[in-house]
């Protein structure tokens, strides 16, 4: 950064994570890992390939790609470098992926391009349950084709990822038609809202002049009542837009994806066209209202809005991973790597310690994760560690075992132990499981 503003902070302040962030550790670390494993697995089977973009992008990328009234813009973390560049920590993933598509000439490849990505994103918003200033998202983008089947593929892939949560998932669905449809609709919508302007919330009264479509998605109780009778965009669709939306619904029906039409679901940005959608979970009785887990839509005009010389048809989604993991059933996204090793490796004597790295590598090759304390020497201290960690088995490797190429396997509950050749250890452990 060009300058650092010094503020006096106590040791207590600097020894705490910044507001709205948290350390990813213990079970949540592995849940996050497990979610990404499962999401990537589903995405790959549906034809997507991975991409990772920088955490920082030019601020203008988001200012051009998003509306000034959009939360992602208002909540951006931006900075100026020593060289004078204006950069922002990415608040969302679609604009960076489209930038990469353009910069790397992906338009010359066979179209469309299927991409998935994940990682941390940053928004300076009020922290609350399921919402952080450093948040985690998983995204999918299909770039390079306007076909309705791709809208359905995106929705289907996201649905299958969320189904792994063990919760009932539904898709809220709407269409924005094409720009011509939307222009006619916005004119009628303005007329309707002007008749009810005194019934709108204060912020929505301002949006009437700047972005009336966003009033449909308002959370203000006053505005929600007004929206019940608002005209719907679907009644203004031309033949081509109707055909596109009808095909999307037919594909989703064929894939048995549950959905409900919601005419208040919109994207207030001009580059969005046709399909928009949102995923919600139906919580168990007594758990509160359904929660939004992510969503997306078709954004055929984004590339040009960002400064590209032509429109690039595309459709995508983003899932809020933090919220998904909060509502997921226990064990829903368990990672493939065992998060709690069942074996504690104990070494005794110089010869055993000298061979310890080779033994640990042998165990890794045999897919046997362990805990150990190579810094300790005594048997009692190492056994005490195993008991504190509640690890059910110890692998004891002393000087005699180092010579014999064996290891002692001790059951920490029964104290029964067997001496096993290292080459037979994998088969022995399989029987233990």
Explain the overall architecture.
- There is one protein chain.
- It contains 16 helices and 16 strands.
- By secondary structure, the chain is an alpha+beta fold.
- The chain has 2 domains: 258 residues, BirA Bifunctional Protein, domain 2; 90 residues, Anticodon-binding domain (Rossmann fold, 3-Layer(aba) Sandwich).
- The chain has an 8-stranded mixed β-sheet with strand order 1-5-6-11-10-9-7-8, with helices on both faces. The chain has a 5-stranded mixed β-sheet with strand order 13-12-14-15-16, with helices on both faces.
- Helix 2 runs antiparallel to helix 6 and helix 6 packs parallel to helix 10.
- The mean pLDDT is 90.
Layout of secondary structure:
Elements: H1 11-14, H2 26-45, E1 49-50, E2 56-58, H3 59-65, H4 71-74, E3 77-80, E4 86-89, H5 94-103, E5 113-122, E6 134-143, H6 148-163, E7 168-175, H7 179-195, H8 202-210, H9 221-227, H10 239-254, E8 259-261, E9 273-282, E10 291-298, H11 302-305, E11 314-320, H12 321-327, E12 343-347, H13 350-365, E13 371-372, H14 379-388, E14 393-397, H15 399-404, E15 406-411, E16 417-421, H16 425-432
Parallel strand pairs: 1-5, 7-8, 12-13, 12-14
Antiparallel strand pairs: 2-4, 3-4, 5-6, 6-11, 7-9, 9-10, 10-11, 14-15, 15-16
Helix pairs in contact: 2-6, 6-10
Structural category is: alpha+beta
Major sheet summary line: 8 strands, mixed
CATH superfamily of the largest domain, by name, is Bira Bifunctional Protein, Domain 2
- The percentage of residues in β strands lies in 15-25%
- Name of the CATH first level of the largest domain: Alpha Beta
Instruction: List segments where confidence is low: pLDDT < 50 over at least 5 consecutive residues.
Output: none
Total discrete domains:
2
Order of strands side by side in the largest beta sheet? 1-5-6-11-10-9-7-8
Shape annotation: elongated
The number of helical runs is 16
Identify the CATH architecture of the largest domain: 2-Layer Sandwich
Number of strands: 16
Distance between the ends: 54 Å
CATH topology name of the largest domain, in short, is BirA Bifunctional Protein, domain 2
